[in-house]
Design brief:
The protein is mainly alpha-helical. The chain has one domain. The model has no long low-confidence stretch (mean pLDDT 85). α2 runs antiparallel to α3 and α5 packs across α6. It is 75% helix and 0% strand.
């Protein structure tokens, strides 16, 4: 019995349909892992919940918001951003695991669209992020946080959070394709903490030493933190620097720059993958 391998489509429209179908197949593979390994998904969602409870209740009483306001309302938008950052480590681990186990090589040997593996990974991680964000939204509401802006402003804030996650997903995919062992993955996941804490997520950069506060202000994550606070109409720190005054603009520009850099790097690395 012979097996006939279908020829790849040639027209642009049929190639697009082929890529979308294969990408969705890989996405379903990722979603299937949710049902087979629910503990991994649950633990990933519980970690930011524990972080927000710790800072909101254990440390929040000692925190002062510049200009006044409730610290928990100051904190929650920052934790939304941190959730997007923590998701990047999960992307790195998942991509590296597939590569190091030979799964990626088997995908590359199949008659499927070359973009399917990367697109499927991206869609899976974005869906995971939406679920994690929804959980943290619920926790925030239970803690007394609220989005005081209009429905459009709230939707815009969520859009900025997911835009950041989308850009960080491609950073994670590229790094995952580079990793050859667990040491590299651990290093990336460890670096999430100093990069995430060196922002305006937990305290105002004005309270830091001058040079450190400047680094925190120019951290791309701080722009999304400040922009979402503004759109949610939550207390902010009100910096007077250029980067602080143009937070919403930069919350779009920074992810666009990250995507422009790491998307072609990820595609090129995947195309030249040998081990």
């Amino acid at each position: 019995m012979s097996i006939t391998i279908p020829e790849p489509p040639t027209s642009p429209l049929s190639r697009l349909r082929w890529a979308l179908a294969d990408g969705w197949t890989v996405t379903l593979r990722g979603l299937t892992h949710w049902t087979r390994e629910p503990g991994t998904v649950i633990s990933a969602m519980l970690f930011p919940v524990m972080m927000v409870l710790m800072f909101g209740y254990f440390l929040g009483g000692a925190m002062q918001v510049p200009g006044g306001g409730d610290y928990r309302e100051f904190l929650i938008p920052g934790m939304f951003v941190m959730t997007m950052v923590f998701g990047m480590g999960e992307t790195v681990a998942a991509v590296a695991a597939d590569k190091n186990r030979g799964v990626t090589s088997r995908f590359r040997s199949l008659p499927m669209a070359p973009s399917a593996v990367l697109v499927g990974r991206c869609v899976t991680d974005m869906l995971t992020s939406v679920l994690g964000l929804a959980v943290l939204f619920a926790v925030g509401l239970l803690m007394g946080w609220d989005a005081h802006g209009t429905a459009g402003q709230t939707a815009g804030a969520v859009g900025l959070l997911l835009l950041l996650r989308f850009a960080l997903t491609w950073v994670g995919i590229y790094l995952g394709l580079l990793m050859k062992g667990p040491e590299g993955i651990t290093m990336v996941q460890t670096l999430e903490f100093p990069v995430g804490f060196l922002t305006s997520a937990f305290v105002a950069p004005a309270t830091m030493p001058g040079w450190l506060g400047t680094l925190a202000e120019w951290n791309p994550l701080s722009s999304t933190v400040a922009a979402t606070r503004e759109l949610f109409a939550n207390p902010g720190w009100g910096g007077d620097s250029w980067i602080a005054q143009h937070a919403t603009l930069m919350a779009v520009v920074w992810p666009a720059v990250l995507f422009a850099v790491f998307f072609p790097l990820a595609v090129n690395r995947y195309g030249n993958l040998t081990n």
